[in-house]
Design brief:
Layout lengths: L1 H13 L2 H8 L7 H18 L5 H16 L7 H17 L4 H16 L55 E2 L5 E2 L7
Antiparallel strand pairs: 1-2
Helix pairs in contact: 1-3, 1-5, 1-6, 2-3, 3-4, 4-5
Length: 185
């Protein structure tokens, strides 16, 4: 039962695009593939030692490892999906239902035989200047239309540093000059 659950963790992690991309690009260093395998074992150990671990707890653990080991800050919500799938598979394997794990394993074998291996392609898209245009053009704005509730404010004053007025020293009746701290000036 435990070996099927461990297999389900490894298979689930192999479907996580963020981790797959990190391993393919060696963001965890030259031993990124070994880190992925260790990652699956660490999740299995976490759930074994913390039986009441829920989706949020596992997600937080996974995101921390992604950040620490692969320098990837995952913020797309995929961590929650993967952790929910792991917790769901844990419940199924505890009940002795291995159909989902077996199905995942057969799909993984198909991907391996096709040579794709769960490859994730990352494409850097460059934007043209034409794409920077807004939906409205400045030519379309009607300057005379005051029904929109905007208030005409005029030009803003220029930002110029105004010199602070120098405090004149105070001389007491004996001819001594009073020293004032900078905060009181």
């Amino acid at each position: 039962m435990q070996s099927k659950f461990d297999l389900s963790i490894a298979l689930t992690l192999s479907t996580w695009p963020a981790l797959t991309l990190a391993v393919q690009n060696s963001w965890g260093g030259p031993e990124s593939a070994e880190k992925r395998d260790w990652f699956a074992g660490a999740i299995s150990d976490l759930i074994s030692t913390t039986p009441d671990a829920d989706v949020d707890y596992v997600e937080e653990f996974m995101l921390q490892i992604m950040n620490d080991e692969f320098d990837v800050n995952v913020q797309d919500g995929s961590g929650e999906e993967i952790s929910a799938k792991i917790i769901g598979l844990r419940k199924l394997t505890m009940l002795g239902d291995f159909a989902m794990v077996d199905e995942m394993y057969s799909k993984w074998q198909e991907r391996q035989s096709k040579g794709s291996g769960g490859k994730v392609n990352f494409q850097h898209v460059t934007r043209d200047d034409d794409e920077d245009e807004t939906d409205w053009d400045s030519d379309d704005i009607d300057e005379d239309d005051d029904d929109d509730g905007d208030v005409e404010m005029g030009e803003a004053p220029s930002l110029v540093k105004v010199p602070k007025e120098k405090v004149q020293p105070k001389v007491d009746e004996d001819g001594f000059t009073e020293v004032v701290g900078r905060k009181r000036r």
